[in-house]
């Protein structure tokens, strides 16, 4: 319990808003703009756009999707549209069924995402907020963990990249990752440390 504040140190609140399926896809398109475009067949291409803040990458529990890195990003890091025709999100499903554009959802998020400016502001500025109380996110997490005692992590993630045969990317992470087991050793390997002291990992798409 003492490490929960390290996992979530920000004084944000738990909130919830109504979204359509199309807006849910748009939310994920914004997150997917974190990644560089990767041409099929590229070797050790950089995966992450350093101009895109990592805190703007959201993973939404309860739905499944894949990201097509061969497609361009739709958004710039500041939220401006880069390519209105771009679409990276593939196979977006809820309970194994394709999500329709007009399908209603309630998205649990944090109060920071309700800001009137930033990457996600066009999706929240006109939507109905159905939960906005004073409960801090870390306090809710603390009660949740105390009640469950053991939190089970799904064996398989609910999102991934569209396969690109013969293609690999590199990304940086904490140096301790080189001494940890990787989730898919057939596709991910440690390369070593770079000049800045970060671990470099290779992912085969």
Structural description of this entry:
The structure is a single chain. It is built from four helices and eleven strands; from the N terminus they run H-E-H-E-E-E-E-E-H-E-H-E-E-E-E. Strands 2-9-11-10 form a four-stranded mixed sheet, with no helix packed on it. The chain has a four-stranded mixed sheet with strand order 5-4-3-8. The chain has helices at residues 4-7, 21-32, 121-124, 137-148, and strands at residues 13-20, 45-46, 63-67, 89-94, 97-98, 104-110, 129-136, 159-161, 168-173, 188-193, 199-204. The model has no long low-confidence stretch (mean pLDDT 89). With 205 residues, the chain is α+β, with helices and mostly antiparallel strands. It is globular.
Task: Summarize this structure briefly.
Strands 2-9-11-10 form a 4-stranded mixed β-sheet, with no helix packed on it.
Please write out the topology:
Elements: H1 4-7, E1 13-20, H2 21-32, E2 45-46, E3 63-67, E4 89-94, E5 97-98, E6 104-110, H3 121-124, E7 129-136, H4 137-148, E8 159-161, E9 168-173, E10 188-193, E11 199-204
Parallel strand pairs: 2-9, 3-8
Antiparallel strand pairs: 1-6, 1-7, 3-4, 4-5, 9-11, 10-11
Shape: globular
Helical run tally: 4
Average pLDDT, rounded to a whole number, is 89
Q: What proportion of the residues is helical, as a percent range? A: 10-25%
The largest sheet, given as strand count, sense and whether it forms a barrel, is: 4 strands, mixed
Approximately how much beta-strand content do the residues carry? 25-35%
